[in-house]
Design a protein that fits this description.
This protein is α+β, with helices and mostly antiparallel strands. The protein is about 20% helix and about 30% strand. It is built from five helices and eight strands; from the N terminus they run αβαβββααββββα. An eight-stranded antiparallel β-sheet has the order 1-2-3-4-8-7-6-5, sandwiched between helices. The radius of gyration is 16 Å and the shape is globular.
Length: about 200
Amino acid sequence: MTLAAYGLAAGGYWAVTSSSSTAMAGPETDRPAIDPCSVPGGSDLRSLSAALPQAAFSEAYAACGWDVEFASGDQGYLGVSFYFPEYEESSSELDDEEDLPKAERDFDRERSEFLDGDISSYSSLEVLESRELDLGDEALVAHFTRGSEPPVSQARVLIRQGDGLVEVNFREIGDEGGNGVDFTVGEDILIGIAEQALSHLE
């Protein structure tokens, strides 16, 4: 499950904001207070023709997403997510049995798919390109597709810093599936936004 999917599954609530600097504050917790909509710089948002952001919050989660237009002219989505799994109530016996801190455990699961190729035969995930990044305690960038007929192109950076996880992702959207957008063209923007997001945890 990606961080974005987790936000919905955890019962987080959404707030539509009028600009990247006016995001609604999330619920009070002991975790760092983060405004995810303030992460991308104005130049990045303008280069993507980013539209009105929507924010989501829960005790363990803070995220913001924008409708964007990529250089190819394809419509898509930019998402910035912060996840603090230690604030998530244990949802399975597996969580209780794991020895690793939750953030490390969750990053390892993502690493096994995107870097090690440990993908279930039932999964529609196809990793096109991936590598580690020198960001935070550990990080990766991955270009991949999900789904079929046709598959949807996506790219993401995932960073673990201490007990927090940061995810920044691009995803193409369309009424009839994907057009095969090559996100390696805009990878510098993706990684740059991820670096800005990481600064909120350091």
